[in-house]
Write a structure and sequence with these properties.
With 208 residues, the chain is α+β, with helices and mostly antiparallel strands. The protein is built from 3 helices and 10 strands; from the N terminus they run ααβββαβββββββ. The chain has a single domain, classed as 3-layer Sandwich (Rieske Iron-sulfur Protein), CATH 2.102.10.10. The strands form 3 sheets. It has a 4-stranded antiparallel beta sheet, with no helix packed on it. Strands 5-6-7-8 form a 4-stranded antiparallel beta sheet, with no helix packed on it. A two-stranded antiparallel sheet has the order 9-10. Bound molecules: FE2/S2 (inorganic) cluster.
Length: 208
């Protein structure tokens, strides 16, 4: 088994957000940003919702629905997009819809994670809470999710809490349940995915 997930980080968003903006600049921008028209939601950008299945986000199987058998026990994590099973629309039009599915031993999960997991499988936002890179690597030796941009480490057994590096908060959890042999979405993210306004200028650039 590879120590890292494949090189998805180059294929997936690795956005740089707010690089080089000082605090003063941000506060000047704030009123302008709030006046922008809200981005129109489409079936492809709609956030994950109850009953959505998951599809591979990258690689030869991109677009194929994910079953528990596709998820290697103890990692690495698999990058996925939700899919509305009724319309068949894959929600790949919004970066914050990208999630990590990882299958772990159920008894290793913390209590707070277990309530959102299905048979040891947990889903987290794949977008780093620091500057928005894709958390696309897996440190098998430490059993941690890794954002390669500034070495942010997250613990998937404990709610993707930040273990090391500059991310200011954990990766949001996406509750899931089992439906047959498939993980499906059981509710919305436990907190907003991505970079929160006001935290994006805290570090350097997202180069990956
Ligand atoms: S963008 Fe992830 S650690 Fe900086």
């Amino acid at each position: 088994m590879s120590k890292k997930t494949d090189t998805t980080r180059r294929a997936i968003v690795g956005a740089t957000i707010g690089v080089g903006l000082g605090i003063g600049s941000l506060s000047l921008l704030a009123p302008v940003i709030s006046l922008r028209p809200k981005k129109e939601e489409t079936p492809e950008t709609e956030p994950p919702k109850e009953g959505d299945v998951f599809t591979f986000a990258v690689g030869d199987n991109a677009g194929k629905e994910i079953t528990f058998d596709d998820l290697p026990l103890e990692g690495p994590a698999v990058l996925a997009f939700p899919k509305d099973p009724k319309t068949g629309v894959i929600k790949s039009g919004e970066k914050t819809n990208l999630v990590l599915l990882i299958r772990l031993k159920p008894d290793e999960l913390s209590e707070k994670v277990r309530q959102y997991a299905a048979d040891g499988t947990v889903a987290y936002s794949a977008i780093c809470t620091h500057l928005g890179c894709t958390v696309g690597e897996w440190d098998a030796a430490k059993g941690l999710l890794l954002c390669p941009c500034h070495k942010g480490f997250f613990d998937p057994r404990n709610g993707a809490e930040v273990v090391a590096g500059p991310p200011p908060r954990p990766l949001p959890t996406l509750p899931i349940r089992a439906e047959g042999n498939k993980p499906v979405v059981a509710g919305g993210f436990t907190s907003p995915p991505g970079v929160l306004a006001g935290t994006e200028a805290a570090g350097g650039s997202c180069a990956v």
